[in-house]
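Why show two proteins at once? Because comparison is the fastest way to build intuition. When a single record is shown, students tend to memorize it. When two are placed side by side, the eye starts asking what differs. So, the first record is below.
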Amino acid sequence: MVTCNQSFLYSILLLLSIANLTADTIKLKDGTVLEGKVIKETPDSIDFEYNFTKSIKETKTIKRSDIKVIDKEEADEIALEEIKQLLPTASLLSTDDYDKILAGKPAAFMADFKTSKLKSSVQDIIDQLLAEKAKVAANSIKIDGKWITSEEALKNPYNHNALVLATRMRASIEERNYLSALTQFEKLEKEFEYSTAYTKSIDSILATLPKYAARLTQYKRNYPLRMAQRDKDLKSMEASDRAQTETAFQSQQKRFEQRVAEAKELKNRWAPVSEWNLPSISDNLDTVTKETERLEKLDLAKVGELATLIAGSYQDLADNKLTSAQSRLENAKSMGAKGEVITKLAEQIDTQRKAARAAALEAADDNEDKDNSGEAKETKPEKGNGKTSENKNTKKAPDKREPEVNPDNESANTTVTTEKESEGLSFQLLLSILAGVLLIVTLVAKFLVKSPEDDTD
């Protein structure tokens, strides 16, 4: 029988091992609550496992007569809790990644617990995973819980691609793949120096460099021991095995040295490293020191301001706000922004400006063609009599419409105005001539035709 002292001891052990508790709970009749794992059950007793210390587990047999309640978590409940951990999903998953997730624990649950009441909960999770997979298949991507469509990405591809690369870099840091993260940061800086993603990544890399240095230092410290152990292992082998092992090792080292040579040829900042190659360890340690000093000297405020200007310029370009895009770009240039990215952005803005002007001219030409087409219809003769439809007059009525204003075609406007002014002056001159003729005729008649009173005199 379990005594009160034993129950008290169980409670103390429970508190000491709380971090490693499992889901099964036993409530004794004396009020004691034990948590651990039911290992074995018989009609008279239960074998219960609990942590005696953090590293030592102990199993006790408890009589059923001393137990008030057994609260044992069922296997499907445990499986459901594990499946819940699949959400939220990570960033930048592919459709293949979703297939692997779905074929794992969710599929196993549906196969193993066909009659479980928890199947609907698992199905809800499966449906959510399938919905996300469909978005990825439609060329959307998920970054930090936010979905970005392909249309949204195309509006600002420069900053979008930088964000994707920076997200992969952060994932490498979380996986403690420090060299991969540093290599991705190097690419981020070379190709997307003026992106907001690059600016935000600097602090992460500064925090990563000491961790990578510690790993390299450990490699360097263990190098003599590693080589000594290798020699010892080779000596213990048969001659044929030793030769085969040595050949494989030398082949591996040759491939590694080739990768190092390729990195140097490409002028990469970070080269591959091997625990079996001491020069590569030392070279990377030197690079850590240089890179830390360089990044610490950066004016982060200026880097951030430049990134904001360039990001804004790209966004304005996408929104067709060309004046604002040009203004932001010029401000960035005045702060020292230069390079291929700046040149390409300027070319894109200029190209879009030219396209806008061409579209405006084309629209103006279309309007003029429509106007001319309308005038032609007004003067077209009626069928059957060959005469015009308006009072049988062949003279075209003057066009009283205002000429269309086009700031990019001022010479055309001037020509139209001059022609209309010429027509107006010709008509006025004709009237003046007719008036003069009438005046002369009147004066001649006055002198040639005399009254009767004049004859008498």
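Second record. Ask yourself what differs from the first in the token line.
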Amino acid sequence: MKISEGMLARLEKTRERYHETGELLSRPEVISDQARFKALSKENSDLQPVCECYETYLLHKGQFEECAELLSAEEDAEMRAMLKDELEELRETLDKDVENLKISLLPKDPDEDNNVIIEIRGGAGGDEAALFGTELMKMYRHFADRNRWKVEEINMNYTELGGAKELTFMIAGKGAYGKLKFESGVHRVQRVPETESQGRIHTSTVTVAVLPEAEDVEVTINENDLKIDTYRSGGAGGQHVNKTESAIRMTHLPTGIVVECQDERSQIKNREKAMKVLKSRLYDYYRSQADKEYSETRRAQVGTGDRSERIRTYNFPQGRVTDHRIGLTLYSLDKFMLGEMDEMIAALQIALQNKLLETIE
């Protein structure tokens, strides 16, 4: 029921800043400054849930103290019994208030609401791994459709059999990164490939990288740091091959990051898409470099930070999907592959929240 002095000081400071930003938003000089008004509006909106939880806690705390005072002065046995029941109810309410306060104080991922760029590559297992990579993309497409998000292809590089060499695409929608950030890592599949004549189960892996889309204000790229090459794009089996050099290969010289885009027939559109991916990769690169402590903490929480880590297994013979970070197994693989991923994602979000709650005093 009680909160620590450190937490109380933090809440008081938050409430003070909430009222300060609210006052600033009413000033003409702030209203006329769009950038500042937008930043303060967002800050005020982020602080509001914390302050509302805190006000509720203070209200119930006052009621509890008043009830306790009445109980200490009451001599009538029947009234004392009623006051004791009310005091116990208020104690339980305050316990819930403190839990809600802790949740409201959890640090919010600044990229939570961003669009997301997903990169899928076939790993161990050759053609079977590549083919499963395309199935993972279909799974994410289904999930996007269920959330009414838009999918935009960026660089679709297939094998001769139609498997994933490298598939890069964006899912645009509010909260896309917040839900799909847990997909970053190595996905393992166990099944009998169509090409397997003796019915043996093969194990293959696919690597999934998940990046928040970086907005223009977050990443600045010097044109002198870029090496841009053009080439002719082509598809599997020689189909849909462009006769003009519309494909783009963009290299960021300081970091060595390379981005390719050949999905559009227009060189200008391919360049725009490549730049979008490059900005997101650079944003992810610089963020991890500047905040290694946060990255390490995040990895320790639910293992979502390390892309070399095996995070999930899809076992087709048994119809199950298992997430190794939280030890959750769902026996609904067919539905999961059709984008019904909400139960798994919710469990991962709760696991992360519970780990973070341990850090709140």
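One difference worth noting in the second protein: The CA atoms of residues 59 and 360 lie 22 Å apart.
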